[in-house]
Design goal:
There is one protein chain. This protein is of the alpha+beta class. The protein has helices spanning 7-33, 55-102, 120-169, 175-204, 217-224, 246-262, 294-297, 318-328, and strands spanning 213-216, 231-235, 241-244, 269-276, 280-287, 332-337, 343-350, 382-383, 389-390, 401-402. The chain is 45% helix and 11% strand. The strands form three sheets. A five-stranded mixed sheet has the order 2-4-5-7-6, covered by helices on one side. A three-stranded antiparallel sheet has the order 9-8-10, with no helix packed on it. A hairpin with a 5-residue loop joins strand 6 and strand 7 (343-350). Helix 1 (7-33) packs antiparallel against helix 2, helix 5 packs across helix 6 (246-262) and helix 6 packs antiparallel against helix 8. The two termini are 79 Å apart.
Length: 432
């Protein structure tokens, strides 16, 4: 029965059970020791009437009642104390489980790094850190191998394609040569498409994206729809913007549309719907077709998985690339077999939450706070260019020089379009 409980409940029951067992044993020993009776001296007359119980029996009964009541009270207290102790003992394990749960394939460089005495809990945390280190090395080697192999195989593919083109371009090529080139070119195209898929998959699984920018999914869907697509119902908002890598998101949308067009039935249909939520953007692509099993549909996000075990006609990387790109952008992919036949692919991505950059206003904002008037000062004298003192308002278009009072150092204040340079005397603060 204890095996079905959580560890905290098991520890609480074990603590309380151990305390109750020791309490019962202590009461039993006390009761046995209290059974010793004192003997009365010989010749002591007995009082008339029924014999009274000896004082030792009364004391034993009172002791037993008090012990039972104390045991009940301490049993309740032991449950509370046991629960607190179990919580305290299991806290490091909860911290380890929470930290481990946050680590994913994109954050294998994170470590628990538990500090404290060398005990069973620290041994467990160190073991998890060693496991994460081995996984990080293994995942990194796998991604580097896929990327390097894809790059290295492009050179022999280009060489084979060039050799075919040269052989066919010769004057009067043999018929067998032309037929061989026609058979090899589609296979070369398929291998090149497969290598390109490996590169995109390795890049999407590599980790953080550096080339992020706002991307409009509506524009990507419109550009990805081919001219020979089946009857398509497009229900997209004018703009469905997410933030991510433009090449990877373009490949994501292109793979979904290509999958819907390629694996469609004759005279089929496609429905594309986009929804803009508060923090997420959803893109759903539905197609008609034969009835599919949900268990087989769930496997399509794995590389080289195809329905029915078919190994020709596609690279088998389309939806796995979609799932990897969505996961790299913090989104998810949901594949659902439609009850009436066909497949529904739903992509959920975080919306673009970057604030738009608003250019600063040319006119400064008005001061809404209380204005502080400077103390009254004598108007400074204005000297014209000829050296003659003048008074009054300067004429428009002139920039008079204002002479500060003696003993003060002039400060330069940027002039406005209509006011001259005004330098306040020492000891006063100009108003804004």
């Amino acid at each position: 029965m204890l095996g079905d409980m959580r560890a905290r409940a098991r520890f609480t029951i074990l603590y309380a059970g151990g305390f109750l067992a020791s309490g019962v044993l202590m009461i039993g020993l006390t009761f046995l020791l209290a059974q010793t009776k004192a003997t009365s001296p010989a010749g002591t007359p007995r009082p008339p009437g029924p014999p009274a119980p000896p004082p030792e029996a009364i004391q034993t009964r009172q002791l037993l009642v008090g012990a039972v009541l104390s045991l009940i009270i301490m049993a309740i207290a032991s449950l509370l104390v046991g629960r607190l102790l179990a919580k305290r003992v299991l806290r490091p394990l909860r911290d380890i489980a929470s930290a481990t749960r946050r680590i994913s394939a994109d954050s294998l460089d994170a470590r628990l790094a538990v500090r404290g005495p060398v005990d069973e809990v620290k041994d467990l945390a160190d073991t998890v850190d060693e496991l994460l280190e081995r996984l990080e090395v293994s995942f990194g080697a796998q991604r580097r191998f896929v990327a390097n192999a894809s790059h290295e195989l492009r050179t022999p593919l280009a060489t084979m394609r060039a050799s075919l083109d040269v052989a066919v371009a010769k004057p009067a090529p043999a018929t067998s040569t032309v037929a061989l080139a026609d058979r090899l070119r589609p296979q070369l195209d398929r291998v090149e498409h497969l290598l390109d898929g490996f590169l995109v998959l390795a890049r999407a699984q590599h980790g953080a994206l550096a080339d992020t920018a706002p991307v409009d999914l509506t524009a990507l869907v419109t550009a990805a729809l081919p001219a020979d697509a089946p009857a398509t119902t497009l229900d997209m908002p004018p703009s469905l913007v997410v933030r991510g890598s433009p090449p990877l998101l373009s490949r994501l949308v292109g793979n979904i549309i290509d999958n819907a067009v390629t694996h469609n039935e004759p005279d089929g249909w496609i429905t594309i719907k986009g929804v803009r939520g508060y923090a997420e953007a959803t893109l759903t692509v539905e197609t008609g077709g034969a009835l599919l099993a949900q268990a087989e549909v769930d496997r399509l996000t794995q590389p080289f998985e195809r329905l029915g075990g078919e190994r020709t006609g596609s690279s088998g990387l389309g939806l796995s690339i979609v799932a990897a790109v969505a996961a790299a952008h913090g989104g998810r992919v949901d594949l659902r077999a439609r009850h009436s036949g066909g497949l529904a692919v739903t992509i959920t991505l975080p919306s673009d939450t970057q604030p738009s950059i608003t250019p600063p206003s040319v006119n400064p904002p008005s001061d809404t706070g209380p204005s502080v008037a400077p103390p009254p000062v004598n108007p400074p004298s204005v000297t014209s260019q000829s050296g003659t003192p003048q008074s009054g308002t300067p004429q428009s278009g002139t920039r008079p020089y204002v002479t500060p009072p003696s003993g003060t150092s002039p400060s330069i204040t940027p002039p406005s379009e209509t006011s001259p340079f005004v330098i306040p005397p020492s000891g006063s603060s100009p108003s804004a």
